[in-house]
Design goal:
It holds the Pfam family Ras. InterPro entries: P-loop_NTPase, Rab, Small_GTP-bd, Small_GTPase. GO terms for molecular function: GTP binding; GTPase activity. Keywords: GTP-binding, Nucleotide-binding. By secondary structure, the chain is of the alpha/beta class. Helices cover about 50% and strands about 15% of the residues. It is built from ten helices and six strands, in the order ααααβαββαβααβαβα. The protein has helices spanning about 5-25, 30-40, 45-60, 70-90, 125-130, 180-190, 205-210, 210-220, 240-250, 265-300, and strands at about 110-115, 145-155, 165-175, 195-200, 225-230, 255. Strands 2-3-1-4-5-6 form a six-stranded mixed sheet, with helices on both faces. β5 (about 225-230), α9 and β6 form a beta-alpha-beta unit. α1 packs across α3 (about 45-60), α2 (about 30-40) packs across α4 and α3 (about 45-60) runs parallel beside α4. The chain is globular, with a radius of gyration of 22 Å.
Length: about 300
């Protein structure tokens, strides 16, 4: 195939992807956006990577050599839903879902929080209570991951004396707890700002498994803010609050006790974690700026001769 034909095919694919992105931004439900993108991306290689790379170019996303196709797909879904939130902020249209964190000049500050833990500890109920203020007594097991968003007011002066952010947009990822999905789960919290590692206070086994979850987070992330969350505090506990708090302190984690059924502690837990995530991100940004300025100064300094 000649280079001209290859360029023409590439341009056609790029145009098709750009058209698809424009269509996805018109969809009103986050789950429908994810389904549409997943259906659009081919299952077979090498076409799958080609389409994902084109979508990332259209969305102006940074590409790294070590990123696999599942990470690229998550990045595309997140970027499209982020654009939907930015559009809503400009036009007043209904919000869908967002990802990552961007500057206040683009939209509200955005942070990503992942919910992990054994299957059945109440991750989906926690997300629904936080996002919709609803309690659903029976939910299906999460396959892979699901996500939702809401805006959250935080006392930002507790996070940073210099912060100007008063309202955050929080993206919550509800991940699968089943063992066969744990490698996929790591993909979702790898780049999160914060993670809630959850256990059922009425189920001792889920508490005993916390150590494995914490180790998995530490192995697949860097600088993430961790919070141990006791769920179902309204039930008959097999694990005391004191025991849960002691575990969190030992592992260097925040701690919260919650009940999705009554709503007790849910909002406070997200506010506390969001404050610490924001503070952590600001420290990272200052460190990066200091390194950049130090490097610029070193490059600008005159070099001394050997004699």
């Amino acid at each position: 195939m000649s280079s001209a034909i290859m360029r023409a095919a590439s341009n056609a694919g790029h145009t098709k992807c750009a058209t698809a992105v424009a269509g996805w931004l018109e969809i009103g439900e986050q789950a429908e956006i994810e389904d549409a993108i997943t259906a659009f991306v081919p299952k077979d290689q090498p076409l799958r990577d080609e389409v994902l790379n084109s979508l990332m170019e259209v969305l102006k996303l940074e590409q790294t050599e070590e990123a696999d196709d599942s990470e690229k797909l998550v990045a595309v879904i997140s970027a499209v839903t982020l654009k939907a939130v930015q559009r809503e902020n400009q036009t007043g249209r209904r919000s869908v879902s967002v990802a990552g964190r961007v500057t206040i000049d683009e939209t509200l500050d955005l942070i990503k929080i992942a919910l992990i833990g054994d299957s059945g500890v109440g991750k989906t109920c926690m997300m629904l209570r936080f996002v919709k203020d609803q309690f659903v007594s029976s939910t299906r097991a999460t396959i892979g991951a699901d996500f939702a968003t809401r805006q959250l007011n935080v006392d930002v002066l507790n996070a940073s004396e210099t912060s100007v952010v008063q309202r955050l947009t929080v993206q919550v990822w509800d991940t699968a707890g089943q063992e066969q999905f744990q490698s996929l789960t790591a993909t979702y919290y790898r780049k999160a700002g914060g993670v809630m590692i959850m256990y059922d206070a009425t189920n001792r086994k889920s508490f005993d498994n916390l150590g494995r979850w914490v180790e998995d987070v530490d192995a697949h992330s860097e600088g993430i803010v961790k919070m141990i969350v006791a769920t179902k505090a309204d039930g008959s506990p097999e694990v005391s609050e004191q025991e849960g708090r002691a575990f969190a302190e030992q592992r260097g984690c925040l701690f919260a006790t919650t009940s999705s059924k009554s709503g007790d502690g849910v909002l406070k837990a997200f506010q506390l974690l969001a404050q610490h995530v924001l503070a952590s991100q600001e420290v990272k940004e200052r460190d990066q700026e200091f390194k950049r300025l130090s490097l610029s100064a070193a490059q600008a300094a005159p070099k001394k001769g050997c004699c």
